Amino acid sequence: MKIISSLEALSQAPSGATYAIGNFDGFHLGHRALIERVQREPGLSGLITFEPHPRRLFNPDGPPQRLMSREDKHRQARALGLDVYVELPFTWDFAGMEAEAFHQAVLQPLAPRLLVTGQDFHYGKKRGGSLGTLRAAGFQVEGLAKVGDASGQSYGSSRIRQAIRDADFGQVAALMGAPWTLTSQVERGDQIGRTIGFPTANLSMGGYLRPPIGIYAARVGIGEDVPTLPAAAYYGYRPSLDGQQERFEVHLLDFEGDLYDQQLRVALIAHLRGDKALDGLEALKAQIADDCQQARQLLAQTALVA
């Protein structure tokens, strides 16, 4: 897959490809419908998206909201078989482009065969561009109706974020077509888990949306591996210890090996419980043992979904 990440490099894209346009945060089943439509056209298929997410530019002090990191999106686009990935730098200058300037700076160099997007797609300064302005400028464009589930509700990143906040990870996986997976590199921690028999990999949450505080049943992939290894994960502030710093920790069940500096892909399968302060390390050790057993039992009953 060819990745293009600057306006200056757009001329390097193969002309005549068919592109889906959107934020694609989560690559949920609505996004998949756009991509499947693109891939039904003859020739190369591609995706036009934005980095960082526009929400980060317009609300830089707001809480993290991403469902996927930049690297996660690249990985998913490759897995779906796209040929070209156009990642437009979303800056204030870019956000201020009039529709015609967007046509000249982005679409004319790409020379797309067809553009596929949602029917309510808007672009350019003050959302002044639409399917109508694209057609008026001579571009072939197709607007797809929103895709919904059996309940009649459409798939959407906002709906997924709410399901995460509600700790409904079965619903999250149903909307995304796979469990919500966070990718991060293992950092050195204070190694308290190791002293009580439950070593954990310490990870940064970065720009990801924060899930509810507590304990999770999870599956983990090391490096580029699909998350299959059973694990118990924790997100919170460790009230039984310091209670000050945000922590995202993962204990791989029945695993031996050094994970420092490795990249882990952590798929959150189910929220087991909230957080609570415990009296001393022995009480903490007993609670972790119980959490790991619950995670093991739940994962044994849950089918693997790549």
Unreliable spans are none
Give a quick account of the main beta sheet: strands, pairing sense, barrel closure.
Answer: 6 strands, parallel
Going by CATH, the architecture of the largest domain would be: 3-Layer(aba) Sandwich
Structural class: alpha/beta
Contiguous helical run count:
10
Determine the strand fraction and express it as a percent band: 15-25%
Query: How many independent structural domains?
Result: 2
Distance between the termini: 20 Å
- The CATH topology of the largest domain is what? Rossmann fold
Features:
single chain; six-stranded antiparallel β-sheet; 10 helices; 24% strand
Any overview of this molecule?
- The protein is of the alpha/beta class and 306 residues long.
- It folds into two domains: 2-144, Rossmann fold (3-Layer(aba) Sandwich); 179-300, Elongation Factor Tu (Ef-tu), domain 3 (Beta Barrel).
- Helices cover 29% and strands 24% of the residues.
- The chain has ten helices and twelve strands.
- A six-stranded parallel beta sheet has the order 1-4-3-2-5-6.
- Helix 7 (157-165) runs antiparallel to helix 8 (169-176).
- It starts with a strand and ends in a 6-residue tail after the last helix.
- The mean pLDDT is 92.
Q: Topology of this protein?
A:
Layout: E1 2-4, E2 18-21, H1 29-39, E3 45-51, H2 54-58, H3 70-79, E4 84-89, H4 92-95, H5 99-110, E5 114-118, H6 131-136, E6 141-144, H7 157-165, H8 169-176, E7 180-185, H9 192-195, E8 201-203, E9 214-222, E10 229-236, E11 247-252, E12 263-273, H10 281-300
Parallel strand pairs: 1-4, 2-3, 2-5, 3-4, 5-6
Antiparallel strand pairs: 7-12, 8-11, 9-10, 9-12, 10-11
